[in-house]
């Protein structure tokens, strides 16, 4: 904090502080605490500069705002409610820390898709280059809305960047979807293409309930992977043989990781196991329950413990068991 950092304004406690942000390549793909620079644009996730707040030994969560000071000709967007040109608000410090921010000079498009305000940003490509990705984005929203219902988000930021910044990170969570460094080229293939499937996967994360938090990677990632394949095959109108072949590739990858044995969801850990295990479980549940009852399990499990609650595999298994 600096002088005058603590005080009250209109009955609200105000804490001000400064953070010096340097940029170095993250130590490993997925380490998003380091800002990413692309041309004249800065990409940063909130937890790189927002502190944890404590009252004694207890962490506290309060609504908050973040305001940027920019140079002339620059602008800023975020995966949060925008108050004015440089200020964003969130319902909690968790939401602030989990948000993505883009500042500087970049290509920007705003769209409204099924009630969701979608901002598409690219510091590496212009509108013509990302036009196929935006067209696919619209198709994904249409099909996912038809298959899963309305997404659990109101503002979404989609980031498209060249791959050479760092290791190929792709992520989606809550109201932010980042497809950072997906390729040397923007997404341009069909839904079943090597770039199309991860694009769909990350976008589908905004259909997961915003409140509950899933401890098990095979639920939040593996089942998302299965749904991405299911949605991609619907978009591409592929036949059952093609879809089965794609699932066979997942099974072969799983078998290689399991070394001829069996992996339980609990063995999935934080690696790629969870993607393969969950995807195969999703296919088995679809075959046993039918597609619509299977999809209803996501909505049902979201209502079990309320917002910001942790959900485990046991919670999900109980919901599934009630539908058999």
Structure in words:
The structure is a single chain. The protein is of the alpha+beta class. It is 35% helix and 23% strand. The protein contains 8 helices and 18 strands. About 4% of the residues have low confidence.
Main traits of this protein?
4-stranded antiparallel β-sheet, 23% strand, globular, 324 residues, 8 helices
In short:
The chain has helices spanning 93-98, 127-148, 196-204, 217-236, 240-258, 273-289, 291-302, 313-321; strands spanning 6-9, 12-15, 36-38, 41-45, 54-55, 58-59, 64-67, 75-78, 81-82, 87-90, 100-104, 107-113, 116-122, 155-162, 171-173, 176-183, 213-214, 310-311.
Major sheet summary line: 5 strands, mixed
- Proportion of β residues? 15-25%
Secondary-structure-derived class? alpha+beta
Shape, please?
globular
Helical coverage, percent range: 25-40%
Instruction: Report strand order across the widest sheet.
Output: 12-13-14-16-15
Order of helices and strands: EEEEEEEEEEHEEEHEEEHEHHHHEH
- What is the residue-mean pLDDT, rounded to a whole number? 75
Radius of gyration: 21 Å
| Cα-to-Cα separation, first versus last residue | 56 Å
By DSSP (H or I, 4+ residues per run), the number of helices equals 8
Q: What is the number of E strands?
A: 18
Low-pLDDT runs:
26-31, 164-169
């Amino acid at each position: 904090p600096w002088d005058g950092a603590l005080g009250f304004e209109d009955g609200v406690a105000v804490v001000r502080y400064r953070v010096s942000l340097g940029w170095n390549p993250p130590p490993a793909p997925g380490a998003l605490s380091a800002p990413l620079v692309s041309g004249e644009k800065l990409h940063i996730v909130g937890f790189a500069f927002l502190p944890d707040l404590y009252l004694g030994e207890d962490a506290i969560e309060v609504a908050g705002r973040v305001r940027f000071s920019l140079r002339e000709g620059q602008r800023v967007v975020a995966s949060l409610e925008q108050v004015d040109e440089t200020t964003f608000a969130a319902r909690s410090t968790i939401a602030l820390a989990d948000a993505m921010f883009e500042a500087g000079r970049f290509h920007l498009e705003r769209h409204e898709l099924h009630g969701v305000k979608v901002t598409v940003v690219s510091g590496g490509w212009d509108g013509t280059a990302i036009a196929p990705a935006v067209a696919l984005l619209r198709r994904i929203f249409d099909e996912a809305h038809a298959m899963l219902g309305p997404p659990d988000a109101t503002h979404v930021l989609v980031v498209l960047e060249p791959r050479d910044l760092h290791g190929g990170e792709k992520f989606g969570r809550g109201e932010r979807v980042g497809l950072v460094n997906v390729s040397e080229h923007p997404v341009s293939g069909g839904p079943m293409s090597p770039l199309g499937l991860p694009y769909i996967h990350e976008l589908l994360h905004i259909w997961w309930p915003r409140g509950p938090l899933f401890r098990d990677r095979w639920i939040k990632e593996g089942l998302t992977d299965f749904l991405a394949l299911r949605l991609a095959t619907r978009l591409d109108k592929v036949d059952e043989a093609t879809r089965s072949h794609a699932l066979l590739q997942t099974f072969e990858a799983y078998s290689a990781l399991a070394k001829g044995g069996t992996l339980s969801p609990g063995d999935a850990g934080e690696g790629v196991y969870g993607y393969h295990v969950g995807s195969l479980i999703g296919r088995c549940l679809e075959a046993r329950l039918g597609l619509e009852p299977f999809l209803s399990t996501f909505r049902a499990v979201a209502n079990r413990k309320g917002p910001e609650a942790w959900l485990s595999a046991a919670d999900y298994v109980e919901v599934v068991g009630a539908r058999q």
